[in-house]
Structure formats: C-alpha cells, structure tokens
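Annotators were shown the component list below and the corresponding predicted structure, then asked to write short factual statements about the assembly.
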Amino acid sequence: MHPLDFGIIVAYLALIVFVGLRLSGKVKTAKDFFLAGRSLSWYVIGLSIIGTNIGADSYVGAAGNAYKVGIAQANFEWIGAIPAMILASLVFIPLYWKARVYSIPEYLGQRYSQSVRVLAAGITCIVAVFAIGVALWAIALTLQTYLGWPIWVGIMVTGTVVGLYSIAGGLAAVAFTDTLQVCIMFLGGLVIVGLGFSEAGGVSGFAATLVQENPTHLQAYLPADHEEFPWPAVILGLGIVLSPAYWCGGQAILQRTLGARSQWDASAGMMFAALGKSFVPLLVVFPGLLALVMHANIEYPDMALPWVIKNVLPPGISGLMFIAIIAALQSTIDSGINSTSLLITRDIRHVLMKNPNPQSDLVVGRYLTLIILLLAMCIAPLISRMGGIYTFIQTILSLFQGPMLALLLLGALTRRPTPRAGLITLLTGVPLSAVILASGVNMLYVAFISFVYSLAALWIISSFTTPTTADLSKLTYFPWKRL
Amino acid sequence: MELPVIWANYISISGFAFLALLVWLIPKRLIFTGTKDTSRWRDIRVWATALILLQLTVYLNL
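Structure shown to annotators:
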C-alpha cells in the first residue's frame, strides 16, 4: 500500500471518530440521541439520506450487478427510488410530522394498534441486523481485496470505529459523519468516472466497447423473460412496492427527517436526497461497467469495484476511493444500529414493559446500540454463503415490504382500515410472501403479489371489524378541504 | 405473449408525467408548513418538477 493512501485512510478514520466524540457532549436526552434534538437542516438530512442508502447493497453489490446486467441496474436508483422519494417528501413526511412520532412503527401504532407497532418494529429490527451484518461483510471483503486483511480483522476494526462515534454521538454524529462520507463518495466517484472514460478512450469509446461485447448493457430495461430483472417485475415489484415501502416506511432512512428542525427542512431534505440520487449511478453502476470494458479478471461480480480501485486509480486517489466505499458502508451501519436501537427502546420496550422509565431511554439506547453492533458482527461472516450482496438484501425485503406498504398506504390515505384488519394482514402477508418465494417465484413478483393480497385483505377485513377510535384527522393525509 | 422492452420506457415516462401533475395538486400552504420564508426557490414542488424532467430525459434516451 502506498504511504499516501495509508495516510489518507488514517486521517479519515481519526476525523470521523473525532467528530462523533465531539458531538457526544450535546447528547443529554433520548431525543438528542435518537432525533439529534430535532436540529438537522435540509442539506444535512439530504446528504445523510444518500449516505444511509448507498450501502452494502448499492455500492459493492450494485457495481457487481452492473457488471452482470448493465445500466439496467440503475433502475434501482431511478424508477426504483425517485417517484417514491417525491411521494415521501410531499405526503408521508408531513404526515409523520403531524403525528409527532419518533418512528414509523410508532405511527402504525397510532393508526392501527400497539400490536401492529410491536410486530412492525420487530420485523424491521430483524431485517436491519442482517443488513448491518451484510454491510460489515462487504467492508471486510473490500479490506481483504485491497489490503489483504483477514475477514475477521476487517469486521473488528470497522465495528470498533463505527461503534465509537455512533454510541457516543447518536443521530447527530451519524448524520454529520454521513454528510462528510457522501462528499468523499461523490469526489471519489467523479474521479473514477473521469479516469475510467480516459482509460476507455472517452465516452464514445467506452460506450462502443461496452455495447459491442454486451449488446443489452446500455438498455434501461431488460427483456420480460430475463432471469433476474425482467422489466415487468422491475416496474411492478420495485417501482410500485419495494421502492415506496423503503422510502416512505424505512426507519433508518426517515429517522433523520424526523430529527429535522422544521417540517419544511424534513421534506426539502428528502427532495434534495432525490436530486443526489439521480446521479448515484455514476458512483455505483459505472465502476461495474468499467471493469467489464477493461476486461477485469475477477472471480465474481461483487469484486468489480475493488478491482477498479486497485487497478485504475493512482496512489492517493485510490486511498480516497477506498475511503469512499468504507464510508458508504459505515454510514449504513451507523444509521442501522441507531434506528434499530430506537425501535427496541421505544416501540418494543415501551409497549411490552409494564412500567418503562422514559428517563432511562438514553442509557438503554446506548447499550442496545452496542449489542446490535456485536450481533451484526457475529452474523457478518455467514453472509458470504448467501449469494450476491444486493440480491440477498432485496430478497429479505421482498418478504415483508408488500404487507407493510399496504398498511402504510391505506392507513395514511384512507380512513377505512381497522386495527384488527391491520394486524391480521401483517400476520398473514409475511408468511404468504415466504411461501411464494420458496416456490421459486422472482422476488420482485413476490413483493407485488403480497402487496396486492395485503391491500385486498386490509380492505375486506376492515368491512367487518371495529373501526379505530383514534383521531384520524392527524393520522391520514388529505390536503384539500372536505366538502 | 411477448412484451417488448420499449413498453417499459413508455410506462416509466407516463408514470413520471402523471406524478408531475399530482405534485402541482398539493396546496402551496402545505408545502411551506413550518417555515416563514416562502421564497420561490423553497417551493419543493419546483424541485420535484426539475427531478421529474431529469428522469424523463433518462427514460427517453436509454
């Protein structure tokens, strides 16, 4: 490793730990720890959302998928993100603000029942721990490829660094380090794009080589009979279900909007993130295509990005890009452990314990953050046996995103769903998804089928169960005056 | 039945165009909830429209 690269990496790690520890002095209450004392401005929120989103599943994994399927992978950043982010910004974030909640399960608890709240929080926590484990594994894989570190050393070092600033500084530290990390990511990504085009003979040379050897790699969509990403499944499963469920109901993403200093900052932050998201394919898809154009000699597609860093970038810049990947993955981990800790502290502990003491939320939250991190570190080494990173995360999400989205959409936009209908739909929708997935159906179709089932179940069961007694004027979105 | 790939582009373009219409149905007072500064650049419906135009460009060309 070049000394310049090493210096840059050490300086970066020292800087984020310093920022995290410095912000720890401002954390006096659980609200400071989980919602940054409701102090975040729109640009910090926007950059932090991008940082949280670009993680294991969309940096190393997306580059790997781009290597396999081409620019169609960018649909996860465009049709599979932008419409849902606009919906979240203009409809769901104002609704959550009106309900004054700390979390999405808390909103579901108010709209449906405490049982739905605990169940939604429980499912989210399980998925989050796996996602954190995946991110840790992806960092360890990158460290192994680039520095030759054993997997377990990479997991230990990453866990220690992230744990230090996340446990000390809470959401504020997470958001500000995310902001720094996203700036590094975009800087590193732009350098790769510039050098990549230069190596490949300019934009036209790059495109010509790519299309000549891989005719479908510059098409936005793949044929309807494509094994992994058939276009009807991408539009129905990703565009209509997985994406809105993630952007309108994902706790790790939305938590920083609930920590905004005003409702406008929260909505504007999400919209700003959507603007940044439009350019994310340059960072996560382009390296995969570049590895293909340069005929990279790699064992499996997930190694495309580490290969580009090692073989295309000069000393100093490769250190910066290496940090960009680590930063992307770290921001997923820090956001995940903070939001999971919040869900267990408030949405599970407060409901299940007879006399929870809200004064102890801060201490409990910090301990839980540590425990969740340790658990994910134990899971991380097992991830390599589960296939491609991106596919693994999306497969888990496809199991419960359909039912969750149905509850959110019908609950937020209509007054019809009842508490019991919400609980029954969630309890039956997730196992149904698992059964369909086990029968070999594409995960994107699974998400769509379970969403349609959940909409129908919620609607029908609500017609013969008792309506909620909650004040729905604060829990449903209707922007116009009622006649 | 064969489903041509170009249909996916048409569906995406139609979806974004429909979304642009919906965005402008939201009353202005809701957009500025929580802020006193109602300058034009802070109207996030304008931000949304710019984003949608960017996406339309992508799906019209790929």
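Statements collected:
1. Chain A has a mean pLDDT of 85.
2. The longest helix of chain A spans residues 151-199.
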